[in-house]
Amino acid sequence: MNFKRLALVVFAASMVWSFSAGAVEAPSEDEGYSAILFDFIVFGDTRFATPGEHLPDAFKRILEEAGLIRPDFLIHTGDLVLIYGSDQKAEQEEYDKVDKFVSHLDHRGYFVPGNHDYSSPQALGNFRKLTNQNWDYFAYDYKGAGFIILNSELPGQIGRITGAQKEWLEQELEKRKNYPEVFVFLHRPLFTPQKTYCDSSGKCDPQANFYASDKDRMDLINLFVKYKVSAVFSGHQNLYYRNDYQGVPFITVGGSGASFSAPVDRGGFFHYMIVSVTKKDINFNLMEPFQFSVQIKYYNKGGRTYGEALLNNLHGEVKRGTIPLNGIKFTMPKGKYKIRAESVMSTKTLMEAGESVLTISDYGENEEDAQEKLKAVIVRFLKPVIYKEEPNPDNPDMVDLWVRLEAPGTFPVRLTVSTTTAPE
């Protein structure tokens, strides 16, 4: 992946989204979508870099972008806070800051215990209160898929999944052995990009292995391979890393706010991941925050009201170049509506710039044919749907319209909602 270091200003502050809202139904293929059955966001290690700081901007931005994507739920891979229990007042202050941003997630957010989260009795109490999770490890099912949350931070078992927890894990995997998808989450990764981190001065931190022994580690890895789990997610190391072992992706998603454990070219950049389960496969879309924005404005023309959103999405490397957005909201007068989406950039300009939904080579060598085929792909993606209409809480004459759209990467899109007739 080509890691761009670009930033866009977010214009979504007025968009409010809570995990307690109803789940979005999967779009159909005849609507021009990719038959996404459900999707979720994975992110982690959003903790403060040093005590007393504000919440990391990347953490807050990821939550804002999640409001536009509006997935079925979020899963956090651990380490909400920094303090290790040595300063109870500072620890409480950190949790209070985090609580302002994540308490509204309710049951639609799930949290993996991190070593910072379990660092003291007070930290554990705050973690459980904030997350509303009063158990050390758990499992749940969603739309036919299984989700297993493990705890690598249990007292006396740090860095291991053993004893009663491992017996429980085997039972949960056996229950779900015929599920089409099973996802596993734990804080400490089973595969790491390097065993020792060294800074520019040559000083090294010998993090040789996070697990008690290679045998314990391989026993756990082989268990996941045996049951052919769909993916194993972790955090702890503040970087992005993926290693596919015997068909199982082991993915570290630990760069959502904390100071990085590695340079940019070895995964040290801010990120989160959208996991989309479709009828055919699973898409693991690595995202960098600050790479897309939505700007909304309203105007009247010819007696009609128009809501216009300009979408910029720079994630060209995302599979098929799109982000599934379900959280674009227009506040409009009551009535009937038309909706349309269009590319702000012409197909010819798009191809001359060398950027498109898919590369030119995907459409053959003839440029004219390639342009026509590319236009067809753009039209197929740019088919927005108003999937929910709600009363506006502040004005009885207005309604809130929720729009679903797959936002193509690398070129801007204009999305317009308008009333169909002028008022009499």
Task: For this entry, give a set of tags.
5-stranded mixed β-sheet; 7 helices; disordered N terminus; 424 residues; alpha/beta; 30% strand; 6-stranded mixed β-sheet; Purple Acid Phosphatase, chain A, domain 2
Walk me through what this model shows:
This protein has seven helices and 20 strands. Helix content is 20%, strand content 30%. The strands form five sheets. A six-stranded mixed β-sheet has the order 4-5-6-9-11-10, covered by helices on one side. It has a five-stranded mixed β-sheet with strand order 3-2-1-12-13, with no helix packed on it. A four-stranded antiparallel β-sheet has the order 14-15-20-17, with no helix packed on it. Helix 2 runs parallel beside helix 3. The chain is globular. It has 424 residues and is an alpha/beta fold. The longest helix is centred in the N-terminal third of the chain and has 15 residues. The N terminus is likely disordered. The protein has two domains: 254 residues, Purple Acid Phosphatase, chain A, domain 2 (4-Layer Sandwich); 128 residues, no CATH class.
Main beta-sheet strand count, sense and barrel state: 6 strands, mixed
- Helix and strand sequence: EHEHEHEEHEEEHEEEEEEEEEHHEEE
What does the average pLDDT come to?
78
Low-confidence stretches: 1-33, 354-361
Query: How much is the radius of gyration in Å?
Result: 23 Å
Helix content: 10-25%
Look at the helices and sheets and give the structural class: alpha/beta
Q: Please give the count of helices.
A: 7
Separation, N- and C-terminal Cα atoms: 54 Å
User: What overall geometry do the principal axes of the alpha carbons give?
Assistant: globular
According to CATH, the homologous superfamily of the largest domain is Metallo-dependent phosphatases
Number of strands: 20
Q: How many separate domains make up the residues?
A: 2
CATH class category of the largest domain: Alpha Beta
Main β-sheet, spatial strand arrangement? 4-5-6-9-11-10
Level-2 CATH architecture of the largest domain: 4-Layer Sandwich
